[in-house]
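Morning. Coffee machine broken again, so started the prediction first thing and wrote up yesterday's gels while waiting. Chain of 141 residues, entered below exactly as on the submission form.
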Amino acid sequence: MDATIYHNPACGTSRNTLALIRAAGIEPTVIEYLQNPPSRAQLSKMIADAGLMVREAIREKGTPYAELGLDNPGVTDEQLLDAMITTPILINRPLVVTPLGTRLARPSEVVLNILPADAFKGPFTKEDGEQVLDQEGKRIV
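Came back before lunch.
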């Protein structure tokens, strides 16, 4: 299966998502979006395909979101997209694209919704110790 992750290696959620994809036996295309941001058209499509509003795909914490005035409700989606392309740290991560869909994997186990359900053969535990998959590779609710 093809998969692409827009990844930030400094982000635990992004690392956990990447590890889940690999635990499914998939070696994804890893795009470190801070160095190689998607085009405006790609970003817009991923946001739409994930069923998100643009404002839901923007990252506030640890970014210049407020300093740029993006917290103003009058800022349009077009202006938000422009800011995200100009300042990629504003893109919430990780965005993951597979043939089964596109998701903003927050929390990381959201990626399970777009990976083959039968791909997991064993347990998976996130970096913080939270178990996501049981011994049989089944999702823990």
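Residues 3 and 98 are 5 Å apart (CA to CA). Going to sketch it on the whiteboard this afternoon.
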